[in-house]
């Protein structure tokens, strides 16, 4: 390998890194520029409830509420289910079945979200409406449940990898000190895998916040915060479902279009803030 | 009559004490691979029982059968009998956690948890009994002293165990095992990844520990066996070739294979 070849390789790697950083920055900047109109016209009134493009009223509170509550429900269901499944596959299931289980679960991740949406309309909304005796099954809860299934493969696969990558000697030391298998999992393995599992949940959170199609089909698309606010059996609206429904109807360059860009910008801010908080909170000191 | 009874009792008690662990007709296979063939031997109490032999001969498998740490290994087949204090270890519903509290193990490469030095020492014992802060402190001090590590780490007990050198980490692992208060220490080539100075520290430590514990040591380092062993067991290709006290085996082995291995380091089994 000559020094010249080496410098080409280095240049390639370095420029790829800078390029991906640049893409993130460009997205951020472009989104901000195209939403600037809305921010400057509407101002702080963007944090109100009413959304009515014909009256130039663009309040996004109900959408932020919808996004956060759907994500909350999804993670509430998917987190314990996913981590426990990961523990089962990695620690309890005999090694020879592991790959079959994992590929089956990874298959779930490959199903297009519109298919999930169709299944949700066909079954879930019907179940929810008959179970709770509602007029419509298209509620925040339905969307949250469906979303939890969609993010499960992310949590399971990555948490399972995190657990499975812990060298065998840690399990043996733990067993050798007289810990029960259950204690080995909770006291030895989970603390070591903790940060990677949190990473898995973060990735799932990102997917839940950004998922559009399935949520749009199931959430009911009504811009309001239910009363009381924890009544998840009411229809709602998420940022993504709003964007998905209205971006086609808005004229390019109009205030409406700019306002839709603004809620996209807010979504990006939410994702970035949550990521920074979590990474700051869980420092990577306990790594192997 | 009464004295005769007492003498018999004494003899039998002595016997138990001398043959602390008694293995007979032990066969271990992994699938179709026959690792240990008809091993019968006794380990002596408060001695350094040293298992020597070439790599891949089944030394570690023998050691790992004693506290059944290999219990969950896929397609393991184990037959025969291992008596510990006259109790059978190889029965199906043996309480393995209790067994492993009594038969502690130190592994080949040091394996500390990503926690502080103090937490590492307490890791096993903390799960077995509730401890007050004072008890914890005294357990940490006592066992780090027993493992000859106290003087080096007493001022930084709350630092990460990963900050220690490899030799110190291995002694921390020994302290962690001692904290559970086992009766027997299984040591699987504990010095093979260490530098000569740390190796010496651990050899001195083993010599000191045998007053309180029974040590079963696996090593492929013949000079180490010569330095610290009391009893020697030569295992080659899954068979026990010869066993006896170190002095006898090094001065006058009965079998030719033992002589070749101990003096030339090669194996002609």
TrEMBL record, chain A:
Location of this chain's protein in the cell: Cell membrane
Coiled-coil zones: none
GO molecular function terms noted in the UniProt entry: phosphate transmembrane transporter activity
Protein name, UniProt field: Phosphate transport system permease protein
Lineage, highest ranks first: Bacteria, Pseudomonadati, Bacteroidota, Flavobacteriia, Flavobacteriales
Membrane topology, record value: Multi-pass membrane protein
InterPro entries attached to this UniProt entry: MetI-like (IPR000515), MetI-like_sf (IPR035906), Phosphate_PstC (IPR011864), Phosphate_Transport_Permease (IPR051124)
Keywords on record: Cell membrane, Membrane, Phosphate transport, Transmembrane, Transmembrane helix, Transport
Automatic annotation (TrEMBL), chain B:
Keyword Nucleotide-binding tagged: yes
Classification via SUPFAM superfamilies: P-loop containing nucleoside triphosphate hydrolases
GO molecular function, one term: ATP binding
SMART domains assigned: AAA
InterPro entries according to UniProt: AAA+_ATPase, ABC_transporter-like_ATP-bd, P-loop_NTPase, PstB-like
PANTHER family in the record: ABC TRANSPORTER I FAMILY MEMBER 17 (PTHR43423:SF1)
Name of the protein in its database record: Phosphate ABC transporter ATP-binding protein
Organism of provenance: Aequorivita soesokkakensis
Taxonomic path: Bacteria, Pseudomonadati, Bacteroidota, Flavobacteriia, Flavobacteriales
């Amino acid at each position: 390998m000559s020094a010249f070849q080496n410098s080409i390789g280095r240049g390639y790697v370095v420029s790829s890194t800078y390029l991906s950083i640049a893409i993130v920055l460009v997205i951020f900047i472009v989104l901000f520029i195209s939403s600037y109109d809305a921010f400057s016209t509407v101002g702080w009134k963007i944090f109100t409830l009413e959304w009515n493009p014909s009256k130039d009223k663009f309040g996004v509170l109900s959408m932020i509420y919808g996004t956060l509550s759907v994500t909350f429900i999804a993670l509430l269901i998917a987190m314990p289910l996913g981590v426990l499944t990961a523990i089962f596959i990695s620690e309890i299931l005999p090694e020879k079945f592991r790959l079959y289980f994992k590929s089956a679960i990874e298959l779930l991740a490959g199903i297009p979200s519109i298919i999930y949406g169709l299944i949700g309309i066909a079954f879930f909304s019907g179940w929810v409406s008959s179970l709770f005796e509602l007029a419509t099954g298209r509620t925040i809860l339905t969307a949250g449940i469906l979303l939890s299934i969609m993010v499960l493969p992310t949590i399971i696969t990555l948490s399972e990898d995190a657990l499975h990558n812990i060298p065998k000697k840690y399990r043996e030391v733990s067993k050798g000190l007289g810990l029960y298998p259950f204690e080995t999992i909770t006291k030895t393995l989970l603390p070591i895998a903790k940060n990677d599992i949190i990473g898995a949940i973060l990735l799932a959170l990102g997917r839940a916040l950004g998922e559009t199609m399935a949520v749009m089909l199931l959430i009911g698309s009504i811009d309001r915060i239910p009363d009381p606010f924890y009544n998840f059996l009411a229809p709602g609206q998420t940022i993504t479902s709003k964007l998905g429904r209205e971006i086609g109807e808005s004229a390019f360059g109009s205030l409406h279009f700019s306002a839709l860009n603004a809620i996209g910008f807010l979504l990006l801010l939410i994702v970035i803030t949550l990521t920074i908080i979590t990474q700051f909170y869980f420092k990577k000191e306990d790594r192997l | 009559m009464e004295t005769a009874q007492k003498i018999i009792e004494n003899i039998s008690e002595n016997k138990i004490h001398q043959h602390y662990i008694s293995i007979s007709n032990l066969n271990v296979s992994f699938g179709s691979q026959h690792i240990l063939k008809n091993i019968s031997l006794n380990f002596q109490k408060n001695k350094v029982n040293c298992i020597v032999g070439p790599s891949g001969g089944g030394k570690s498998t023998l050691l790992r059968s004693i506290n059944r740490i290999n219990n969950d290994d896929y397609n393991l087949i184990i037959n025969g009998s291992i008596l510990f204090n006259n109790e059978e270890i190889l029965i199906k519903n043996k309480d393995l956690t209790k067994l492993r509290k009594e038969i502690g193990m130190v592994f080949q490469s040091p394996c500390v948890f990503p926690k502080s030095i103090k937490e590492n020492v307490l890791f096993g014992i903390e799960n077995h009994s509730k401890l007050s802060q004072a008890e914890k402190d005294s357990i940490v001090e006592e066992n780090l002293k027993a493992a000859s590590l106290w003087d080096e780490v007493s001022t930084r007990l709350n630092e990460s165990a990963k900050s220690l050198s490899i030799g110190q980490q291995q002694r921390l692992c020994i302290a962690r095992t001692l904290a559970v208060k086992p009766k027997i220490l299984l040591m699987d080539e504990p010095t093979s990844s260490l530098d000569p100075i740390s190796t010496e520290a651990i050899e001195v430590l083993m010599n000191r520990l045998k007053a309180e514990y029974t040590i079963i040591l696996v090593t492929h380092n013949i000079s180490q066996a010569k330095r610290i062993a009391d009893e020697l067991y030569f295992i080659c290709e899954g068979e026990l070739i010869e066993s006896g006290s170190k002095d006898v085996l090094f001065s006058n082995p009965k079998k030719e294979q033992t002589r070749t291995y101990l003096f030339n380091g090669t194996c002609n089994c």
